[in-house]
Amino acid sequence: MSNVTRFGAVGDGTTDDTEAITHAASQGDGMLHFPPGTYRITQPIEIKLTKHGPLGIEGTGGTARIIMAGKGPAFRLIGTHGGTGDPGSRKGNVASHQRMPTIRNIEVEGAHTEADGFELIETMQSVFEGVMVTRCRHGIHLIKRNRNVLISHCHIYFNTGVGIYLDGVNLHQINIASSHISYNRLGGIRLEESEVRNLQITGNDIEYNNHRSHETEPEPTAEIYIDTSTEGASVNEVTIASNTIQATDSPEGANIRIKEKSDTSRPPGLFAISGNIIGSQENNVHLTGCYGIAIAGNCIYSCKQNNLLIENSKLINVSGNTFRRHTPKYGTGVSFTQCTDITFTGCSIHDETEEGQPDLPALLRLDNCKRINITGSQFINGLVGIAASSTHHSLISSNTIHDERKKPIARNGIRFDNTGEGNLAAHNSIGPCKSESIEGRIHSE
Hints:
445 residues, mainly beta, elongated
């Protein structure tokens, strides 16, 4: 291994070790080894994989720390892979010299306002394992083009930018697993202006990624933020599963935010959001302009506005989720606006407080929607269970809509305004409410 101390690095936290580490990277055997210590650098350690051959960076079981006291990434890895994941697309020495650059068991701490952790350009099969990045701007920054990235067992913690940032990147196959991604001011995992396929986010703790711990002005953000609203951007084939995704609320904030321009011919699709614990934000899950998404088996709790807000979207399946409010500070509720072909089945929405929530009068709200099927779900303790406005050809059936308070305060079980047509409400169990007549429980204005 290329022990950086043998190339002159001191590791005392004070000496500038940039030149020594650069020397070790360029003249060593490809395994860049950091013994226990704190290594201060002032410029990026830039490694061109085509020249150096297979690369490993090892921090001796997490005992080595890099202090980045300059602008830019502590480590910049540059490859030349312009192909896909197909073995036949690898050109030049990508297969022999550039495959699987591996970074393990090392910490990077920023000491400059524009310091980043790691930046990857045109790499193939990069691996991050046991890495910590803190007090930087961006933790792991992927730009231009990358393929087959693995990030696992990492701590991306308390950075002023984005934890894991896919920024104008063409990237297929990235797995982010078993990591702690938290307290990053501009989001935990963020995709912008990118073309991405096969993104798996599984088994992580992703939380508190907003401005609050940084004591700065708020900016719209999310624990997971996917924005494909710019020209040429698209994201498909995504799994978000078995994560804890929670936060303190922030203006225009969300736990999961997926945003697409409405006039695109290729909106986000082939998404599965399942088995997550999601809570405590302005909107917990917020989708705009989406197509073909399954949201299943999540526990989604406590919102300032909506547990689930879906706008201008179609072909969305929402099933088997629990929506709840557990404190008077927050609310609970689901809203569909300008949506088509939505199924909402086997879900529960509970307001678990006694006073109700006058700012969110209906547990489920439909506005200017078409072909919405709401079946087999429970709506408990709403002032209104389901409210529909300008909604057409929708079915509400086999639901339980009750107010179980000692003194019921519900106004209506189901409320339609008079601007829709072709709607059907049938075989619902509607419990006590102020309007005891059937006409009052199912109200048409």
